[in-house]
Design goal:
Helix content: over 70%
Number of helices: 16
Structural class: mainly alpha
Shape: globular
Oligomer: single chain
Length: 317
């Protein structure tokens, strides 16, 4: 439907030449922009109906007082379904510390929250199918679980800034809402406005990059990127993603264009996971609450884990 709309607008009405780089890039842009914004509104609204009962304070209360492994599983699950990107997850780090939740569990949440984004998963499923999309979710869960465990082994409490331990954080996130359908509807509409209003520029930027990639990047360059099974392309994609800033939704169009050009699935997902979980703004904010050794450990463990996941997807796809 979206592709037909784009082709009608650009080929029939605008008169662009079918198959030309400009036409293919423009069709990709119109098609993905309309598709992503429709899915954003629908998915965010539906999740907002559920999220009306979830606030950062409630997240903390649910995790507090449980056994370490139970708390880790719950933290990862909540990270996957709560509306916190990598940067907005950082204030919760302080709240988790104040609540007495182990730092290994806190880091598991910090990894899972931006990486396993339900909107991105729905969009990704439309590109690579539900089986591979669910495998991506499983990979994100494993990375969050193992990453938190490994960081825990280094006793990261010694690297938390002193002032963090003294903070008494109140409810710093979603407001408490009622449970009636009308109140949930209002909250869900507010979620759509807030989240779409926050990320629409990144979506357009991501679609724009994807469109240029789709229409103008030479096939020979893509073949070189994927040559030899993509062994070196995976760590290169991880390193490339670290300084970039976007969320999982904004990078989906780039991933789609890369896959359409023949880039290996694992290489593409490695770039996507690196951008989502290792964004530079997140690291800058995170440095305010943990010292350099903990930050370097966090980056190193995630980079290694994402690289291994990329190699795995390249081997099985």
């Amino acid at each position: 439907m979206f592709e037909s709309l784009a082709r009608w607008l650009l080929l029939d009405l605008a008169g662009l030449t079918a198959g030309s780089p400009t036409a293919e890039a423009a069709i990709f842009f119109i098609q993905d922009t309309s598709k992503i914004f429709v899915m954003l509104v629908v998915v965010i609204y539906l999740m907002g109906l559920v999220r009306a009962l979830i606030s950062p304070e409630r997240v903390r209360q649910l995790v507090r007082g449980r056994s370490k492994e139970s708390a880790r599983g719950l933290a990862i699950g909540l990270g996957a379904v709560t509306p916190f990107c990598s940067c907005s997850s950082v204030p919760l780090f302080i709240g988790f510390v104040e609540a007495g939740i182990p730092l290994g569990v806190t880091f598991s949440f910090l990894i899972a929250s931006p990486m396993i984004n339900e909107v991105a998963v729905v969009l990704l499923a439309g590109i690579i199918g539900w089986k591979l999309a669910l495998l991506y979710v499983a990979a994100g869960v494993v990375v969050a679980w193992v990453g938190g465990l490994v960081i825990e082994r280094f006793h990261p409490e010694r690297w938390v800034e002193d002032y963090v331990w003294k903070i008494r954080m109140g409810d710093a996130g979603l407001p408490e809402t009622g449970t009636s359908l009308t109140e949930r509807h209002r909250f869900a509409v507010g979620e759509v406005k807030q989240i779409v209003g926050r990320i629409w520029k990144w979506v357009l930027a991501g679609v724009g990059v994807g469109a240029l990639f789709h229409g103008f990047v030479p096939a020979a360059w893509i073949a070189a990127l994927s040559q030899g099974g993509g062994f070196w392309s995976v760590p290169a994609a991880v390193l490339m993603g670290i300084p970039l800033y976007s969320n999982a939704v904004g990078v989906i169009p780039v991933a789609e264009a890369m896959l359409g050009k023949g880039v290996a699935l694992g290489t593409t997902l490695a770039l996507m996971m690196s951008i989502a979980a290792l964004s530079l703004p997140e690291l800058i904010i995170l440095r305010k609450v943990i010292r350099w050794p903990a930050l370097a450990l966090f980056v190193a463990i995630l980079a290694i884990a994402i690289t291994l996941v990329g190699w795995l997807f390249n081997a099985i796809a």
